[in-house]
Amino acid sequence: MNHFTFGIDALSSIDESTVRTITARLEEGRVAYLSNMAFSLNKNETQFLSPNSIDNKSKNISYHPLTQQVRGCEHLSAEQRALLQSFMQRYYDYAKDLIQALLPSYVDSLEVGRTSYRPVEIKGRPSSYRKDDTLLHVDAFPSMPVQGRRILRVFCNVNPHGQPRVWNLGEPFANVVDRFLPTLAAPNPIIAPLLKTLTITKGLRTPYDHYMLQLHNAMKADSAYQADVAKMQMPFPPETTWIVFTDKTSHAALTGQYLLEQTFYLPTSAMQDPQLAPLHILETKLGRSLTGRSG
Ligand code: SIN
Ligand code: FE
To answer: Which of 75, 114, 217, 247 could make an SS bond with 151 (beta carbons 3.0 to 4.6 A apart)?
Structure first.
């Protein structure tokens, strides 16, 4: 146990008070580390343990549990794509069952997001600095406004060669905000409706989304910050699972290959303590409301 992570050893020992503690720690910004829980691949799925599973224009394979569409593997046969679809659906079911066991108070309010499979080594992968997840950041996406909702993600390292997924975990969200918020430009009210009309964003980019995106970019752009900020390296070995609110916890993925990830969105009103939401923290610092939604 440290300031960055906490362990969960067995689902069988989880009672009501453990649930409250797990929920509180996650909402504070720690990573829940499940060192002996993993998603296992079926024999016929191990063929996807190759970077050739993705087509050359994608960086991962994505799946949406609601539409059951897989993307990023158009070069595979129909049969292989069907198998990938069931593989991703199985991971979604695994992630959902974990949330049900560990965070039952969220279940009725959670919205399902993308499932992602990442078969490419992250270290040395070419990308622009804004897309470079080897730099510390909090998650915020240009095309996907969350309008205040939390981003909750379930990761599992399925590397078959013993290779860990190594993360850095950075300083608490309030420190990130204190450091970068004074440098960020206020949103321009003309832009957000335009981005929505042009369907550049899926929905309206609220002032909250604007600030979170600016924060994400400013962290990644500041190389002195990246070098000097207090951080802890955390290796997640194969066959381990971890859960984290990636919109609040500063993180970077340094090395690793073969990762599964499921995204969920949670309205802040469904949190055990909504005051711990990035939305609340930013609104308090700025002294204004950042979203029209009550969530
Ligand atoms: C990220 O969310 O920044 C990347 C996590 C990973 O790929 O390990
Ligand atoms: Fe991230």
So the answer is: 247
